[in-house]
Design goal:
The protein has 327 residues and is α/β, with parallel strands linked by helices. 51% of the residues lie in helices and 8% in strands. Helix 3 packs antiparallel against helix 5 and helix 9 packs parallel to helix 12.
Length: 327
């Protein structure tokens, strides 16, 4: 199977920061096919053999895992992939990928992108996985021409969205998210993203554009024009009149939900340095002893649940994954 030559770019950065909105906006461009989340270069990454290639059985397992991924948000109201693309992803793509002869990670990823752009009738592939921002060095090594749209959200807005994700889902889903939430987790995740974003801007400044969530809210049209220029695309090919202000928010219509003092305590304790380095202000809300002590008591149970979930939902070594966020 011949691999074509076409641009491949990435939307990454912090979750809860507008990555879905950006993905669907760019998918409305006549040249771009935007999809995700494959988690290919991070959580779903599998190291090849010493010769840089996958054994046949590992390759078949990877293809099976990839075909099970949902490419599009079910709640998207604009910029969605074609129905035939979504159907073909699970039905036709496995056969398409299995025809690959040189089974390296980069060739497999190129074939994934190639399938999507051919199905959509586009010429530029853009993959959206937030935590790929942690793996830009790995991606840049094999895809040196790729560019990265890196999304950022201020720490307390991120934590608020993280805390109340699933709010608009059913009662069962809401309870699952509530049990899984701990302010230590939200703070560690934000700090981890922040560290990777800071490194990316230092090491790959010519390949990275940073988009802050507040910029999306204040002037979405100008943001899209900047991103289009960064990718070498014409902004005239995006229909701005059909683009809504936000997408995939867990707390639309729930603006009165706020953080408590324990949330602020943990975010400031864990990520103070990164908050300042990204140019945000520290929120010094009053701390309440009982709320903070309660989170200490709940910490062991949260650690157990987190390890269990990671062990069941990641191809990576979970201890390496945890260490990455803690260091």
């Amino acid at each position: 199977m011949k691999i074509e030559n076409f641009p491949i770019h990435f939307i990454c950065g912090m979750s809860r920061s507008g990555t879905t909105w950006m993905s669907h906006c760019l998918n409305m461009h006549k040249d771009c096919a935007t999809f995700g989340e494959t988690l290919f270069w991070g959580r779903n990454y599998v190291e090849p053999q010493g010769n840089g290639r996958y054994r046949d059985e590992i390759f078949r397992d990877l293809v099976s895992r990839i075909s099970d991924i949902k490419l599009d948000s079910e709640r998207a109201e604009f910029g969605k992939l074609k129905t035939n693309t979504l159907i073909g992803w699970s039905q036709d793509m496995p056969k398409y990928l299995l025809a690959l002869e040189d089974k390296t990670p980069v060739n497999l990823f190129k074939m994934i992108c190639q399938f999507v752009i051919n199905s959509e009738g586009k010429r530029v592939a853009i993959e959206k996985t937030p935590h790929h921002v942690n793996w830009i060095p790995r991606i840049n090594k094999v895809l040196p021409d790729s560019r990265f749209i890196v999304m950022v959200r201020e720490p307390y807005g991120f934590m608020r969205s993280y805390k109340y994700q699933g709010l608009q889902a059913g009662e069962r889903v809401r309870r699952i998210f509530e049990r899984q939430y701990h302010p230590v987790q939200a703070a560690l995740v934000w700090r981890g993203y922040a560290k990777s974003i800071i490194r990316a801007t230092e090491d790959y400044s010519d390949k990275v554009i940073v988009i802050r969530n507040e910029q999306l809210i204040d002037d979405p049209r100008n943001v899209l024009k900047r991103v289009s220029r960064f990718l070498g695309l014409s902004s005239d090919d995006i229909s701005f009149d059909t683009i809504p202000a936000r997408a995939n928010s867990s707390i639309v219509g729930a603006s009165k939900l706020e953080l408590d003092s324990a949330d602020y305590f943990w975010m400031n304790l864990i990520a103070r340095k990164q908050i300042k380095n990204l140019g945000y202000d520290i929120n010094n809300s009053p701390y309440y002893f009982v709320e903070i002590v309660t989170t200490f008591i709940k910490l062991p149970l949260w650690i157990f649940r987190t390890i269990y979930l990671l062990n069941n939902n990641s191809n990576s070594n979970i201890f390496k994954y945890i260490f990455r966020w803690l260091k």
